[in-house]
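**User:** My hope is that you can spare some time for a protein that puzzles me. I have put the entry right below:
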Amino acid sequence: MSAPEPVGIDELLERVRSGYGRIEAREAYDAWHAGDALLVDIRYQALRERDGVIPGALVVERNELEWRLDPRGSHRTAAATGHDLRWVVVCNEGYASSLAVAALHQLGLHRATDLVGGFQAWKAAGLPVRPTERPAGA
């Protein structure tokens, strides 16, 4: 058996994104506000500290995402109650989130999607953002 033909990241993103519908910032906000979606922010701490967070979004850094959202996993978050949840994954600009969604789809989270333009698009749309709270003494 031969190895698959290598692809560049742009082609990989195109392939991954062709398998689901991405969501714009306003639509994500409306779905979240209506209780039809859960937002999960996968940005690392330095970006959250720099730019703030989306109030009510679950924060799960990318390296923990599959373990925290797998409804069958022993390390799942309390919100990961089933495979039919509509997760909207938010990264900084909408690239890493697309690759994360591909992994979530492999776990059977078929309604998972990501935010076009990521957190920066959310912020640019004037949607709610609050500063990250720093621990006392930091």
Q: What stands out?
A: Residues 74 and 81 are 12 Å apart (CA to CA). The first strand starts at residue 38 and ends at 41. The first helix runs from residue 9 to 17.
